[in-house]
Amino acid sequence: MAVLDVVEGDITRLAVDAVVNAANSRLAGGGGVDGAIHRAAGHDRLQAACRAIGHCPTGEVRVTPGFDLPARYIFHAVGPVWHGGQRGEAALLASCYQNALRLAGEYGVRTLAFPAISCGVYGYPPELAVPCALDAVLPFTAPPTVLERIVFCCFSPDMAALYRDALRQRGLPT
User: Fold this and answer.
1) What CATH architecture applies to the domain 3-169?
2) Cα–Cα distance between 54 and 56 in angstroms, integer?
3) What is the pLDDT of residues 113-160, one digit of tens each?
4) DSSP 93-120
5) Which of 34, 44, 68, 165 is catalytic?
6) CB count in 10 Å sphere of residue 29
7) Given phi > 0 = left and psi -120 to 50 = alpha, else beta, which region is 91?
8) Order of strands across the sheet with 61-65?
């Protein structure tokens, strides 16, 4: 069974097999987590790898090497922009997490770190995104799974508290 862990810090410094990037559909690098991952991985090489892939639709995930990150892989997940919840945002957000976890299985990833996808400039309300993320991830923690540890990497204490509270509400250790 995979362990769920909440950490507050910089996702680019985590010693995990793969990190999930909150990417844009052009995989072009941007602000927030996306910009931090591009800078830390080595912008030019990561950008060249992303250009070779091209485009990634919302809800889907693409893979590149981790380059200068401690992680071997970067899973680029394109989360939805929040439009009030009436445009399938929850299903698209869940799909990001599920697709990243499927890829983790394909790539033999044992440790994986997620940021709070879509909670930055895409405007997804964290109090709605966190339960959606957990509901999408939990089925992937049960045997059989190659995953040993799934990290929710939070940039702020408030976001970390939301994840810890949601785990407690589900009777899971924090």
Assistant:
1) 3-Layer(aba) Sandwich (3.40)
2) 7
3) 999 999 999 999 999 999 999 999 999 999 989 999 999 999 999 999
4) HHHHHHHHHHHHHHTT-SEEEE--TTSS
5) 34
6) 19
7) alpha
8) 3-8, 149-154, 111-114, 18-23, 73-78, 61-65
What are the tokens at 105?
A: 């299985």
Does residue 10 have an active-site annotation? no
> In which residue are the tokens 């990190």 written?
19
What are the backbone dihedrals phi and psi of residue 48, each rounded to the nearest 5 degrees, phi first? -65, -40
**Per-residue pLDDT reduced to its tens digit, 155-165:** 999 999 999 99
The amino acid at residue 42 is G
Residue 48's closest CA among 33, 67, 31? Answer: 67
